[in-house]
Amino acid sequence: MYGVLAKQKNAKNDADSRNKEDSVSLQKRTQKAIGLLRAAGVPKDLDWVAADGIQSYEEMGTPATTAQVHPYQFTTSMAQFAEEKGVKIVYGSATSIEQDEGAVKSISYKSRDSSEEQKLDADTVILTAGPWTKTVWKPSPISALRAHSVTIRPSRPVSAYALFTSIDMPRGNGRRGETVTPEIYARPNQEVYACGEGDHLVPLPTSTDLVQCDESRCQDIVDQVSAVSEELRDGEVTAKQACYLPNVNRGGGPLIGKTSVKGLLMGAGHTCWGIQNGPATGKLLSELVFDGEATSAQIGSLDPRKFGV
């Protein structure tokens, strides 16, 4: 279930009082705390958020209208299914797409096991390289935004909620007060995923293996979610990580469809919604390849050619 949680300003969050309170794990909430949660409209089973200082709660969905997909499990499972159907997966990095007289001719790539560049002849290419799209095809109006995230094993099992928060962090320890908006997702494997804001501090590397993770930004996320949940504050951080999101430079997007080059199709620029919209993107692109047109949805506004591709 999805919810929006806003933490109230000036709610018992000066540095001295917090230091004293943060040193004790209550394990169970008092009746007063439970009453505060109910007064803010927080559902009864969302009992792993701090009661003090909650200003409001707004429900965005129900178990009947929302679901969660684990990115790693989903993508690796889809790859396995594809291989079972005869697809050959080459692990490596595409470097360029060659064309001849306005049509796709071949792809150049470097295998993960060799630094030698190789070529693969092709008359149809589907470009779905995420933030690396522009690296492979220069005309693509796709830029990259770095984003950090953490996973935490909470101090006790938590209920199934995804929270889009707005938290007013306290001043103190040389830090100015600010409003932050981390997203918090409870996962079914006794794990909570949390992500923060993006940055452009480090350019996109040539491969995922070279992505730099800034531990201080990950710690910021841990501090932020700890401010609204004792279970997360007392939990164990199991991963600190970073990734890059593909953004369409002129806004809008994603870009899905044929390009001005015959045989070259594109599905890129999904920002943080790639896992959600990826399957539909794949279906639409398959329709374009095998049927000549997309029939499952109207995607005229997402046509890459409108963006000069």
From TrEMBL:
Alphabetized InterPro entries for the sequence: FAD-dep_OxRdtase (IPR006076), FAD/NAD-bd_sf (IPR036188)
One GO location term (cellular component): cytosol
Any Gene Ontology biological process: retrograde transport, endosome to Golgi
Origin: domain of life: Eukaryota
Ranges for domain FAD dependent oxidoreductase: 65-288
Annotated region described as Disordered, given as residue ranges: 1-26
Biased segments, Basic and acidic residues type: 11-23
One Pfam family recorded for the sequence: DAO
Protein's recorded name: Fad dependent oxidoreductase
Organism: Stemphylium lycopersici (Tomato gray leaf spot disease fungus)
